[in-house]
Every structure is written in structure tokens, then in C-alpha cells.
């Protein structure tokens, strides 16, 4: 049962059931599958998508507005003061990206309804902006633009709902109903999917089978990737390029006049796409995470704890080919090999590791 007061805040009846409202909107957001609007033959689905997404974002805005109103109904004497009040003002006035503000707050500032109010306020601002952008979309905008806006709005809606649910649960001392995920966790999952894709693609590049066989296997691989859980979290641009490759492969396979040279070019384009996915490593949260992990590995090396290195560098798989090759070895690597690979990885990240 939710207590009548939490850290000086007198709870309103609406706040007592706010988690249920957040869960309701979350479920509405979860049933939207943008993949249905990604293919070249998905014109109708793409035309309907902005309106469907806008309805969910609008619903989330209403919930956030209700939370802010309920919190503001408290008398000034029940507000927080001092350092926490300064922290909350900095949250509201932050110039950091929305995702970073939310992640930082969830990580270190939860515990009162003052935080619930500020998070709901920040979320309301962000989602209202996303809603306005959705409503400005036109059929003349490219599929990439429309999909990008819909995808971005949905991501931020889900993140806002989960973050406020986490804040409410922390203040009330109850379990959260929604799964909150930081940008780092999401980026690690996406990079893991890209690594798996490249690992499965690489054998096809050097296969001696006829190009038709290899392209059939490549087409099957793409179909599997689209079904992966991490697919929806990949960048829209990456997903659209993958879909384009899928369409071209199916077209080549379905045409009797297709040439071997054309097939080889398709395989080369797929391989180039696989390498392009390594750009995910430029995400700031991955740079910071990988630098910290590699520096811990260097400290272990300097302390003579070579046996610990594989576990320490495993989370950076996909960052540096030299490190990946040592991780893939079936035999134990020596300290000098690990040191060289780790230094190479740190050097490739340049000044951002300083």
C-alpha cells in the first residue's frame, strides 16, 4: 500500500495509481511495430504510422502533465530545499540530451516525489516537441525522415514512461512495473547484434560456393536479423540500408538474367555494410565504457593478473579487431599480446581516452 506521505509530499489519489497509467500507455507503445513500415512495399503502413505514434505520444504527454499538476498541488512547505532543490533545478534547465538527463537522474537522484515531478516535467517538454514534429510530417517527406521521426518519438516515449515509473516506485518503496534501460545498455546490445551479424556474414565473403548460393544464405541472414530483439533498437538508417540490401538480393535471386558479376557486387555491398556498422563505436556512452574497461585491463596486466583479461575486455567486443581475435582464440594469449591489442584499441580511440 502506498503511504499517505512520501518524503514530505502529500500524495494525491491520482499519484497513487500513476504506475497503472504509465503501464497502460507503455502497452500502447509496445504494440507499435515500425518494422512493418520499413519495406519498399509498405507505403500504406508508412502513411498510417505517424498518426498512430502521435496518438501514443499525446497520451504520454497527458499522463506527464497530470503528474506535474498533482505534484504542484502540494503546498510550498512540502517542497525540498537546499542541495536537492538545486539538483532538481539543474535537471529542469539542463542542456544535455534528453536520454543523458534521464539516465543520470535514474542512476543517482531518485527517492522523492520532487524528482518524480521534475522528471515528468522534463519528459513532458521532450514529448511535446516530438509530438509537434510528428504532426508536421507530410507524405512528401522521405521514408527515412518519417521513419526516423516515428522511431525517435517512440524511443523517447518508452524511456520517459519507464523512467518516471522507476522514480515513482523508488519514492513509494514499491517494485517498478516497467523495464528501464540506460543508453549504455541499449548501445551494448546493439553492438552485440552488429558483431553477431558480421561474424555470420564473414564466412559468406570467402565461401567457394556459387554466388547464388551465397546470396540465398545472405538473404536468410537478413531475415533472421530483422527478427532479433535488438533489431528495433538499431539506428533507422542502418535498418533501412539492411532492408535495401534484402530487396536487392531478392530481386537478383528472382531474375533469371542476373549476372554473376552483379551477384558478387551485391556480396561486396553487404560486406561493406557490415564494416560500416562498426561506427556504432562512436557513441559517447560506448567510448566512455570501453575506455574504462580497457584501462582496468591494463591495470590487471601491470599487476600480472593475465588470467583476468578475457573477462575484463569481453564487454568491449566489437571495438577493436585485435582484441576480438584474442577473445576468439581457443588457446590462452600471453601478456605481451594482450598489452599490444589493448594499447592499439586505446590508441584508436585517441584523445577521448585521455
Structure description:
- This protein starts with a strand and ends in a 5-residue tail after the last helix.
- It has helices at residues 13-16, 18-30, 43-72, 83-92, 98-108, 113-135, 143-172, 183-205, 211-226, 236-253, 260-276, 284-302, 309-313, 321-328, 335-349, and strands at 5-6, 9-10.
- The chain has 15 helices and two strands.
- It has 354 residues and is an all-alpha fold.
- It has a two-stranded antiparallel ribbon with strand order 1-2.
- It has three domains: 5-181, no CATH class; 196-280, no CATH class; 284-353, no CATH class.
- The model is unreliable at 1-13 and 75-86 (pLDDT under 50).
- It is 68% helix and 1% strand.
- Strand 1 and strand 2 form a beta hairpin.
Name its key features:
354 residues; mainly alpha; two-stranded antiparallel sheet; 15 helices; 68% helix
Unreliable runs, pLDDT <50, ≥5 residues? Answer: 1-13, 75-86
Structural class: mainly alpha
Note the main sheet: 2 strands, antiparallel
Overall morphology: flat
User: How many structurally independent domains?
Assistant: 3
Count of separate DSSP helical elements: 15
Biggest sheet: strand arrangement: 1-2
Q: What is the gyration radius calculated from CA atoms?
A: 24 Å
